[in-house]
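# nightly structure sweep
# worker-07 picked up a monomer target from the shared queue
# config: single-sequence mode, recycle default, output format = structure tokens
# input follows
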Amino acid sequence: LTWRRILAVFGPPLLVLLVGIVAHRGTANIAATRVAGRRSRAAIDAADQLLVFLVNAESSERGFLLTNDDDYLHSFAHAADSVPVASARLLDFVTKDGVSGATTVRADSLALLAAEGMRDLAETIDLRRTRGPDSALAQLKTNRGRDDILAARRIAKNMRDGEAVLPAPPPAATPRYPHAATPRGISGPGAASHAPRKQGQAQ
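# output follows
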């Protein structure tokens, strides 16, 4: 066979094969990009949800410190249950392929700040109950819990700004975490030591 005949016989099938390989790789890359985008979006959503719990916990703590009314601690008790699970969910998302290393580092920092912030808020609540408003106010003025939450806000914003993602999928229902472990310094299931007390119970 001459080269022309070889090309005439085998050229078209080889061309089709090459086109198919290129098309397959292109499709695989597009699919991988979409998967990475969804994972990045999931990580950012998890960070935002964690931040919501922290902000609610701080507001709950401030209400209790001002009024000494345990009804204000409902949100804190819920956040104490939810923050550890939300942190674990965030860290699970950033360990998957397609999430940038910078986002992983920020997620680790955010989870640490969340635990520290909840611990500091819990300590202030304990001081209000055991030593009175003056001790709690002195602790509050150190801004430890507040600084942790402000730093968490900055990290969550950096995650949103630094991670390029595809358009978000339709929103799912916000998960609730009623039986999670509590952060350091908050004892008992459901943060029982900081749960609202019944009416008439000694303060």
